[in-house]
Amino acid sequence: MRNLRERPRLVIARALIAVVLVLAGVLIGGVVSGGHDDTKRQTDAALTQARDDLKRSQDTVDDREARIQQLEGRLSELQRQSRRTTASNRRLQRQLARTRGALRRARQ
Fold it and tell me: 68, 86, 87, 106: which has the fewest C-beta neighbours closer than 10 Å?
């Protein structure tokens, strides 16, 4: 359930891969049980198509996982930068307040 919430596309892709594998198994089972040559050729073609689809799906999943890793790294970098900027901003605000106070005291 956690994977579904975090990476729904990945879960869907893996489910589709499983379905393709099951269909390929059913087709192979039909051939093994004694089909005709024409049925065998059709099954081989369908199996080849299923393998190609599976390979494309897996490539897509791999590409998306790599992109996710890249974006997570960039997010971490931006979060660190944000924390540094926030700290610097606070430091500058304190310095500004001290400087304004010193100016007020100097005018009196």
Answer: 106
**b/e per residue, 31-55, with b = 16+ CB within 10 A?**
beeeeeeeeeeebeebbeebeeebe
Give the whole-angstrom CA distance, residue 98 versus residue 75: 35
Helix 8-32 / helix 37-107 crossing angle, nearest 10 deg = 170
Phi/psi at 33 (5° precision): -75, 0
Alpha-carbon distances of 51 from 55, 85, 93, rounded to whole Å: 6, 50, 62
The tens place of each residue's pLDDT in the chain, 108 residues long, gives: 566 566 777 778 888 888 888 888 877 776 666 556 677 788 888 889 988 988 888 888 889 999 999 999 999 999 999 999 999 999 999 999 999 999 999 988
- Find out whether 50 and 24 touch, Cβ atoms under 8 Å: yes
pTM (2 decimals)? Answer: 0.49
